[in-house]
Amino acid sequence: MAAERTQDRERERDRERAVPRIRLDLPRERRARLLPEYDPEAFGRMSERIARFLGTGRFLVWMTLTIVVWVLWNIFAPGPLKFDEYPFIFLTLALSLQASYAAPLILLAQNRQDDRDRVNLEQDRKQNERSIADTEYLTREIAALRMGLGEVATRDWIRSELQDLLKEMEERRDLFPSGDTRGRDVPDR
After folding, report:
1. Whole-angstrom Cα distance, residue 172 to residue 164?
2. How many Cβ atoms are within 10 Å of 51's Cβ, its own excluded?
3. What would the mean pLDDT of 68-84 be, rounded to a whole number?
4. How many other CB atoms sit within 10 Å of the CB of residue 132?
């Protein structure tokens, strides 16, 4: 009997070793990737900074100064010191490269701004809906209060009713003057 239990335990251990159990409540281990990972938000923030810089006057001044220095250097510098020997082909290549990178970066920045605007617009729309719902609720409550106040006795109304009652009592007193009130508890019959 003990030998059977020992064998059963060994079989269970062998099964556990043979097939690893997959736990659904634990995250899987990360697999090695061939391509490096990057944070798309960090890339987007960097591209927005570059796009903002490309749209400033500072960038235009620096680019203009660079081109002027480039052209003057390649015109007036001695032959061996010129780095753009052909008629400014390297300058054209550099400017084309800058433009080819600037356009997608600017588009990426615009797309990110559009996404932010869309989210802000959605939040504003929801806030407006809540404000309208709150306003409608308050309007209904004020109307209910007005209707309730219409049925409440006000100070002026009570005064006027008391004055009317007082006048009526004085009129009765004038019509029915009271004489000797002794023995009035007994009916006249």
Report:
1. 12
2. 20
3. 84
4. 10
pLDDT of residue 20: 64
Cα dihedral 44→47→52→57 (10° resolution): 180
Distance between CA atoms of residues 120 and 129, nearest Å: 14
Return the residue matching tokens 């219409």.
150
Q: What angle do CA 125, 127, 131 make, to 5 degrees?
A: 115
Contact 105, 54 (CB under 8 A): yes
Please check the confidence at residue 180 and state whether its pLDDT lies above 60.
Answer: no
Number of Cβ within 10 Å of residue 109's Cβ equals 20
| Residues contacting 18, CB < 8 A, separation 6+ | none
Please state, in angstroms and rounded to a whole number, the distance separating the CA atoms of residues 4 and 9.
Answer: 9
Rounded Cα gap, residues 31 and 12, in angstroms: 29
Collapsed DSSP state (helix, strand, coil) of residue 18: helix
Query: Are 89 and 83 spatial neighbours (Cβ–Cβ below 8 Å)?
Result: no
Angle ∠(37,40,41) on CA atoms, nearest 5: 135
Confidence bin at 137 (pLDDT 50/70/90): very high
